[in-house]
Amino acid sequence: MKKIYILIIILISLSLIGIIAIQITSIKNALILKNEDLEQKIQLALNDVGQDIADQTTRFPALGVPKLSPEWPSDQLLHGLFKSPTVAQRYTPNQIYEKLKTSFKKYGLSKTNFEFAVLNNNTLGNNYEMQTVNFTKLLADTVQNRAFGFPLSAPTGSIAEGLVADEELWVIVPNLKVFLWKSSSWMIAGSVLFTLLICTAFFITVQTMLRQKKLSEIKSDFINNMTHEFKTPLATISLAVDALKNEKVMQSREKMQYFSGIIKDENKRMNKQVETILQAALLDKEDVQLSMKHQHVHEIINGIMDNFRLQLEDKQGKADIMLNAKNDLIEADEVHFTNLLTNLIDNAIKYSKDSGLHILITTQNTGNNIRIKIEDNGIGMNKETVNRIFEKFYRAHTGNIHNVKGFGLGLSYVKSMVDAHRGKIKVESALGKGSVFTLDFPLLK
């Protein structure tokens, strides 16, 4: 069974890793395609504006009369007369910006920020005819920003060749990668969300499987414990009944009473075990009805310790009681409140060392609460046991101690009753050093 669980976990893990790898690859490929598409649209938008400006600039003859110097030779005078004006002479920066903005909007790039410049020497240097404020600054960072260019010169062999200024229109899109990620945020967010959902479902599935496995083990342990707890008194009763049939026993009144007493005690023991199991079932259904009345904690503790005096003497142990709380009046169910304290003290005695048992019970007032501490110097518990000690049917490993019986319901019942009395319980323990149970209950106002 354990191998099947491991195999299922491995297969699901591999599937999950494969899905995540495919998701990452898909996102990368999608970003590459989107980047290529974005760059192509930017270039097309720039081409449209550049072609329009080039067509207007290379239109012959040039509009207006340029200023000519009388010292120019005749061929230069003719060249200057027919030479087309530059982009800077024909357009303002705002007009170029509006043309670019309109073209970007045409290709669905209305949210794309850009800076532009017009150069007069076909190189991306410093010979600008016009430029936006941040163009030079953005040009310095070629890693984050992407530059696109379009030549505005007349085509080779055309009538305007040599008469049009040698110019280029450049556009820089700042943080193109960031813009690309932002534009793909819905796709990335969706992939991450569904991947997290798959991971969550995987962990819940594994957790449920492990919990079911643990419950199966606990169920087996519970059945084994219950069989042992019932088998022992039944065997004792059977032996006592057989003894009562003996003629010598039948003739002795003392022996009759002795064996009858054994049967009665074992019957009580079985009834107690049945009540414990039924009580756990009621706690599961939350059907336990508490009879809440005014109770003095100190009186209940003294009464419990009187009942444990013989057990302490048998273990050669001692108990110190320091009832320091000035106010010990609470509202509680006498039976269940007594039982929860009894279970804690009984465990302290059961899980004690072979000799030198010492139990310390103290009370004190903390704000509006009464704090009860039950300390022992027993075998103690490790961290795992401390974390699971209030789980139903859970029983801590007791090392070489095999005479500790039970169903693992005592501390589960204690936790339920503490909660029912609006209290809190905390456990501190260390192996070989003992345990400390701290309980806080609200005082009556």
Key traits:
14 helices; 3 domains; four-stranded antiparallel sheet; 445 residues; Helix Hairpins; alpha+beta; Heat Shock Protein 90
What does this structure look like?
Strand 8 and strand 9 (369-376) form a beta hairpin. Helices cover 55% and strands 16% of the residues. It starts with a helix and ends with a strand. Helix 1 (2-57) crosses helix 4, helix 1 (2-57) packs antiparallel against helix 7 (185-244) and helix 12 (334-350) runs antiparallel to helix 14. The longest helix has 60 residues, at 185-244. It is an alpha+beta fold.
Beta strand %: 15-25%
Our Rg estimate from Cα atoms comes to 45 Å
Return the structural class. Answer: alpha+beta
Strand count: 11
Unreliable segments of 5+ consecutive residues: 60-69, 74-81, 399-404
Distance between the termini: 56 Å
Tell me the series of helices and strands, N- to C-terminal: HHHHEEHEEHHHHEHHEEHEEHHEE
Helix count, per DSSP? 14
Q: How would you describe the shape?
A: elongated
Any idea how many domains? 3
Question: What's the arrangement of secondary structure elements?
Answer:
Elements: H1 2-57, H2 74-82, H3 87-90, H4 93-106, E1 115-119, E2 128-131, H5 135-139, E3 146-151, E4 168-173, H6 176-183, H7 185-244, H8 247-251, H9 253-285, E5 292-296, H10 297-307, H11 309-314, E6 318-323, E7 329-333, H12 334-350, E8 358-366, E9 369-376, H13 383-388, H14 410-420, E10 424-430, E11 434-442
Parallel strand pairs: 6-8
Antiparallel strand pairs: 1-2, 1-4, 3-4, 5-7, 8-9, 9-11, 10-11
Helix pairs in contact: 1-4, 1-7, 7-9, 9-14, 12-14
